[in-house]
Amino acid sequence: MQFTKKDTALVKGVAILMMLFHHCFESPSRYEGFDLNFFPIGEYWTVFIASFFKICVAVFVFLSGYGITISLSKTGIDSAATYSKQTAKRAFSLMSGFWIIYVLSVLSAAIINPSMLDVYKGRNMLNTFTFGFYDFLGLSELFGTPTLNGTWWYMSLALIIIAVMPLAYKLYKKYGIIPLFIITFVIGSLVKKAPSDKVINFDMVRWLFTMDLGMICADRNLLARAKSFMIIKKSKTADYLLKFVIMNLILFGCLFARKMLDTSVSYIRDGIIPAFVVFYCYIILAEIPLLRNVLQFLGKHSTNIFMSHTMLRAYYLKNFLYGLKYSALTFIVLLILSVLLSVAIDLIKKYSGYDKLCEKIKSKI
Question: Which of 59, 138, 166, 301 could form a disulfide with 342, with the two C-beta atoms 3.0–4.6 Å apart?
């Protein structure tokens, strides 16, 4: 038994649902000025759950650590040339999906709301160009420069993961788990942000522990081993039902544990809880046929949705979405529109020749 690409897509589908809900309702400021009905769970629990769903970031980090580890286990990193080649290839694969959305976002902003592009205005033309270029490269969060879309901060983190994963993997394979965790905890505890000028944002290192967990689970095939383990060996149905009860109780506990745990250990908290959510999705949700198919479909579109949905929710359609009166309707309509936009982006990439061009470039790296 293996944790396959389809399983990865399923977990990404769950994570993208979390992200949309989180971005819609994480705090009352998101819908300030709108008269929303939060039926059936009320405003308090909507905000509470949306805040918990911030773990979607860590879920994506976990999956990145898992996937890159599987790749590294097949190819290895026996030289600096191999390291640079693999890093460049992964970075290009990531950024090629982002660049088309960046260009479409800038063009749409120039047409629909040109004032949005004022975010890049600096003291002179060089500043303006630099701000736009850093955003195009996904480095705005790392260098603290303006960005057209706040959600794009994750691009800096994704690039950091791609860069450090081969080193972390080599350290893990040579010295084991304990030295890896010691180094991760020391870095996570000491490095926050460059103290005064904030030229470089080091705060993203707090996700390294989550990346480590993904790497270890991949190397030791822990997800598949957990799923194949049977508490009740004589009946698969009874075994699943027991796991369903136990894991849902743990998940319910995680909902409160994340809020109660001190933020000083957030890099540990936001590693263990998201890792459990991945196990939950794989062991529990993946066994529900129709739901499995829907989540896998969403997972295939998760990258496009992640990169583009904020343009709909926060800039172009905010009044429409929050003006739907019901929070559930706001979420559902945003999801539908985000999926339709993702499908449209894929069609543009396909019929414009963008996909073929990217494949040719990647084959040359």
Answer: 301
